[in-house]
Amino acid sequence: MLFTSLGLSDPILKAIQETGYTKPTPIQAKAIPLVLEGKDVLAAAQTGTGKTAGFTLPLLERMVQAQKTQAKGKRQVKALILTPTRELAAQILENVQMYAKYLPYKSTVVFGGVNINKQINTLKQGVDILVATPGRLLDLASQKHVDLSKVEVLVLDEADRMLDMGFIHDMKKVVKLIPKKRQTLLFSATFSKEIKALAAGFQTNPSLVEVAAQNKTADRIDQLVHPVDKKRKKDLLVKLINDGQWKQVLVFTRTKHGANKLCEHLEQQGIKSAAIHGNKSQGARTKALANFKSNDVRVLVATDIAARGIDIDMLPHVVNFELPNVPEDYVHRIGRTGRAGREGEAVSLVCVDENDYLRGIERLISQKIKKEVVEGFEVDPSIKAEPINQGGGRGRRGGNQKPSGNRNNTNRNASSTDGEKKRSNSRNRNRKRSRNRQSSKEA
Ligand code: AMP
Asked: Which first-to-last residue range defines the signal peptide (predicted)?
């Protein structure tokens, strides 16, 4: 199939041509015609499948078609794209602007962690397409800086992640501000029970689209486990980077503190690195990401939430310096490499404390990951498993306990300012009350 057979207008086709994409990815081939027909779509697509273009291209096309019959007036938000994190929101806006390059629409992004006034000013000037995280959007709406009453298309991207992060009430509030008669596109990594319930509340008779088997890791990612003692992980990482002459590596740690410490160590070893996590200001995060993308920084050390939404073309190496305590996060993490069908390598450094996490991951992906001991880094069999420190000083879990695999047990608070902070605190309190809290993850 070619993009030209999808019924997209010339300005959109021209923009696609400039990106260098030759043909639609499977999610695009399936979703674009349905969205063009005006249907609600519930899509399960992994990260890296090209889902952003899967909803943005037809959304733009529908705006082009609608414009032909609508009278010209003040710009109003016609399309709203909700996403869980700031990084993802910024990334989506970049994509929207790239695909809409030859169209007259204005788009912008709003998220917390940065000054609200600039966003208010941009909104005042009129916007057609708005990308937003829920907290900041609600702040702006409650202060009457944004009017959502003319929204025709609502996209909930990474809806599973928004649920995990406790955004359900915010999502419901946002939906109340949008006309009932609308098109709703819901994207999630998987069709979980919770996602189906969400779809039932927000969508009308949605068409289901699924491109990869649930929870299967992308085929083209080579996965490898290096068993290693915890204390020797950082030396092994330095060796892998140096011996393999890796130029661009995304490394995941479980905690913010761990990310900082590892970053310092790599710098001491002469490897240019930057850390990206929730304690860093938005400016610092954006700078770190930009430097990493431009190859000024060789290693980006990230926690799960901070890394969500990172989209770097041809990212060749992902390293799990520590395994995630939530198996699904492994799939998300390694989805950062091998994007849109390219080849990639995901290496996990696994110490004895993490063997249960590894088993949980292998169960989820229904696959045994190849193990390879690196010479000189053989595991000391006398070291016994110890409880794993999840960071954050609370909710610690013993390493000998089974990973729950319950994504709702994690603290995925990515919001950090203004009303978002209050809301997220209350979300956290509610969640704490309502569940048997075991683990806490920070980003
Ligand atoms: P996404 O899943 O939307 O985050 O997209 C993952 C990556 O795939 C991004 O780097 C896109 O630029 C890229 N991409 C999207 N559509 C295509 C396509 N049809 N062909 C090749 N790459 C694509």
From this structure: none
| Nearest atom within ligand 1 for CA of residue 311 | 10
Answer for the pair 226, 348: CB distance below 8 angstroms, yes or no: yes
Over 90: is that where the pLDDT of 399 sits? no
Residue 313 pLDDT grade (very low, low, confident, very high; cuts 50, 70, 90): low
The binding-site residues of ligand 1, defined as CB within 6 angstroms of any ligand atom, are: 21, 24-25, 28, 47-53, 311, 313, 339-340
In the reported structure, the alpha carbon of residue 166 is separated from the centroid of ligand 1 by a whole-number distance in angstroms of: 28
pLDDT tens per residue, range 257-269: 999 999 999 999 9
- What is the 296 CA–ligand 1 centroid distance (Å)? 23
pLDDT greater than 80 at residue 23: yes
The rounded distance, in Å, linking the Cα atoms of 279 and 344 is 29
Distance 149 CA to ligand 1 centre (A): 31
Verdict on whether the full-model pTM lies above 0.90 = no
Query: At 220, phi and psi to the nearest 5?
Result: -90, 15
Whether 340 shows a pLDDT value over 80: the answer reads no
β-pairing, 183-188 with 107-110?
A: unpaired
